[in-house]
Amino acid sequence: MGRYKQAPFGYQCPYQHSCPHLDGISATWALRLIDDARKDEFRDGHAARELEVENAALRADLDQAAKRIADLEVRLKTEHKMRFKPNRKPPTDGRAPRKRGAPKGHPPWSRRVPDHIDETVSVAAPAVCPHCQTQNLKPTGNQHEQLQEDIVLQPRTHVTRFLHHLAFCPQCRREVYQTGPNELRNCQIGPVTKAVATFLRYSIKVSLRDVRRIFDKLFGMPFVPASAMQFTRSVADAAEPLHELLRNRVRAAEVAHGDETSWRDNGRSAYLWYAGTTDFSYFKLDPSRSGDVAVSIFGHQFPGGLVADDYAGYNPIEAKHRQSCLAHLARKAKDIAALITQLPTGQRDAQSLEFCTQSRALFSDACALGAQRDQGEISFSAGVAKIPNLYARLHAVCAQPLKFPDAEAFRQRLLDPKRDYNRLFTFLKINRMPPTNNHAEQSLRQPVLLRKLTFGNRSAIDGHALGGGIGVVIRH
């Protein structure tokens, strides 16, 4: 028979006020303490649960902040690598450092043989050896020939005096004269000096003061740096009709390249635009980077094929054919992969990294097809037939969403019909259209070097000279 769960009615515990089992403490007092503890637990329980929820939220925020800090550190490190080249140290694994110069088996470079000989100097056989100083040498009768080519400096100027015979014009009511051959009216410096000074300024990228020093020291032609600046302005004014003709040729080109780079115009931001083909170049300096500038160069309706990067400024141009630069896309995938590999191991997304690797391989294979077509290894129709396979590979690479934000944005960019999707493999449909915008990048290389040396231009007139004259001075 089990024990009673409750005491009998009217039962009074003899140890109510002093229980030996509680070390003499009153049982009533002990029960009240127990009841108060239960009430306190019930009263403060919800606060404890709220604290647990708050702690969980703070832990989640801390984890998110740690991931954000790791991502920013990786991006900062990548940006630093892009700005500064690493200090190359010799290998520490025992391997020999790579030998400088051309690789083994590369054909040697030799200087061209001069097409004429102006002077022949006969040198007698030596009586004393120039190496060991042995005396009383006997001539062998053989000869050693050496061709030496050098320049002839004539540190003097050629002064021409033009004697103009005057005639009276009844319309102008004054005496007039005509311009002589190779004469610049009202100019004390001739056209050759101006042309060479402009060439040194824009093609060799020599400063105006150094241009003055070259003419002063080598040719005995002194002038001030302001004169050299005026030379470039004169060339730009004279080349203005040709500059407009080049823009018309851009609009009539079958395949044209477009790109732009930053510039400084009197300390303010500006942009130097490029448009052209392998035969000619057109440059325009403008304070804006909007699509209106691109339209002013190519026109709203461009009947040819346009090769450019994914910059939205070229979207207002309704080109018949448009090709995105696959080199830019491959570089973008490479940069995203570099970001992923520098993250902590637990934050790396293997699927995003594989996506970057496969997309780079896809663009490299597409560029290889273009090179094979241009070299005649495959026919034009065979190149066109490869387009469905390339798009099938693209869909397979971009099939699944990605966790890494940059990789997911790049995946959506490749699949967006308004961006790169319809411009990836256009070059296989058009003859002589390259898959990259490397030509425009190379064409802007010399102006970029000039910008690094001169920090831009200081006035609107110099900007006009740059935009109007550089496309004529810089030739390919």
Low-pLDDT segments: 472-476
The sequence of SSEs as H and E is: HEEHHHHEEEHEEHHHHHHHH
How far is it from the N-terminal to the C-terminal residue, by CA? Answer: 113 Å
Q: Kindly provide the radius of gyration, computed on alpha-carbon positions and rounded to a whole number of angstroms.
A: 40 Å
Shape: elongated
Which structural class do the helices and strands define? Answer: alpha/beta
Outline the biggest β-sheet. 5 strands, mixed
Strand order of the largest sheet: 5-4-3-6-7
Q: What brief labels describe this structure?
A:
476 residues; alpha/beta; two-stranded antiparallel sheet; 14 helices; 45% helix
Walk me through what this model shows.
This protein is α/β, with parallel strands linked by helices and 476 residues long. Among the domains are: 51 residues; 111 residues. The protein has 14 helices and seven strands. The strands form two sheets. Strands 5-4-3-6-7 form a five-stranded mixed beta sheet, with helices on both faces. It has a two-stranded antiparallel sheet with strand order 1-2. Helix 2 packs across helix 3. It starts with 26 loop residues before the first helix and ends with a helix. The C terminus is likely disordered.
Topology:
Layout: H1 27-83, E1 167-169, E2 174-176, H2 191-202, H3 208-218, H4 225-238, H5 240-251, E3 255-265, E4 268-276, E5 281-286, H6 291-298, E6 301-308, E7 318-324, H7 326-342, H8 350-374, H9 380-385, H10 387-397, H11 405-415, H12 438-443, H13 445-454, H14 460-473
Parallel strand pairs: 3-6, 6-7
Antiparallel strand pairs: 1-2, 3-4, 4-5
